[in-house]
Here is the input.
Amino acid sequence: MPGTTTAGATRAADVPRQRPRRTGPAGPADGDGRFTDGSANRWTVLVVLCASLLLVAVDATVLHVAVPAVSESLRPGAVELLWIVDAYPLVCASLLILFGTLGDRVGRRRVLLAGYATFGVASAFAAYAHTPQVLIVARALLGVGGAMIMPATLSILRHVFPDRRERALAIGVWSAVAAVGAAVGPLVGGALLEHFWWGSVFLVNIPLMLLCVPLGRWLLPESTGDREGPWDVVGALVAAAGLCLVILGVKRAGDGEPLGPGTLLPALLGVALLALFVRRQRRRRHPLVDCAGLTRPAFGTAVACIVLTVLALVGLALIAAQYLQLVLGLTPLQTGLRLLPLSLAAIAAGLVGSRLLRRLGPRTMVCLGFLTTAVAVLALTGVGQQDRPALLVGGFVLLGFGLETTLFGSYESMLSDAPADRAGGAAAIGETAYQLGAGIGIAVLGTVVNAAYAPGVRAVAGVPGDAAADAAHSLGEAYEVAGRLGGPEGEALRAAARESFVHGLHTALLVSAGLLLLGALAALRLPRTMVPQERDGTRGGVRNEERGPGAEARSGHRRDGTPGEGAGQPGESLLSGGITRP
Here is the structure.
């Protein structure tokens, strides 16, 4: 959005800045890092970017199968265990906007390379953590690295692939890699845990990061944004602090003191900081995010649908991994194989998503996705202490397909509702919602399981009070306490802990089903059909002619409303700081 300028400054702004052309292994590029020839090496750049994204996607799920081993080795409490798992998505979500906009100022490749280094160091730190607190810090540092990597990869892709058709294909590959990473994460973790200790699931990141740093420095072009307006680092830090404090309040509530000062104070302070952030963004000429867009029915509803969808996915995936290993007694590798249908079904839904969207429209597609997921969740309440493979596979397939269908329709509706020149900011809000939903989902559903699990363990007759209190922290710790007790008391504690965990799982599934049905009702506010973007050459009710000289070059749209060279397409990532999922 252009600021107020003098006539001379306006004329100067209309003249593109000439920067020296540079060449490199990926081919010649102009000053903005856009490739100007038909060099095939830009596909090599895509491989480097996708390799780094693969690690980030794998790291989001690889820990799920290692949770029992971590619990046995480090003996974390229930809240510490939750922090170990969701420190990564929480920190990553908090910092996406900060590092996305930082890349516009200092260079996206520079931020990406710093993210590689941070991710590698944090992986080594996590692998050799000797206390739960150290592992939590390491996971948070991994989130910092992930927040550097994710926006930068998609921003660089836009510059490496100036041709719109090739760029769409590249982004499709990028999205597929993200889905594959989520699918193979449990498999990689399970295979490593068959032969090594739990820290090996983090060491796998280091060799590839050591390879990505020199390759990225050699192959990737540097690029920056137009740097229009000052960088609101204060606003980004306020948003990050607010998100962290809200999640802290949720976690403290799961520690047994929902109305205590340690719960209410962080939660209320976090809400106040987020309100301050929204107010600050509304008043700024160049905000980090378009908070006003959240008040529009289609945009705000789509963001809410993303949060609810991911809340169900991530929380249930973690609980399911613990159920498969600790209740059914499967190995980590077997657990990864059992969870594979969920991710494969999600990939299949992504492949047919565009066709479904054209036929059904956003409203029907998202509603059906929520309902399909709710049916899957309710079906999974039939699991118990005995293995039922057919029920698990069928439930996971429905769960994965329904969740991805909902995400696909929600993202498309959100991006289509946003003005074209705000599409990057809209994508950033969507990805932040995705990561925030992951953090809240693990906290909320984990809290529900613990609340339903603990009373049954404490009520076992013949078990000393201290031992019962320790066993109430987690199922893994209950097994350890039962082993120390031995005899009939130990067997009784083990059986009660297993039964209580299944009860907690059923309770979490019912809560998740309720949230999914709420999402289906909310999705009724989405558009019935796909509406073509910018029919009359306007963006958010403001015509090109009203936006001043230079708007055509900045927006990528000609004054007659037709797409120009820089125009993006719905579903693509358009600006740094934005992540678009399929």
Summary: The chain is about 70% helix and 0% strand. The chain has a mean pLDDT of 73.
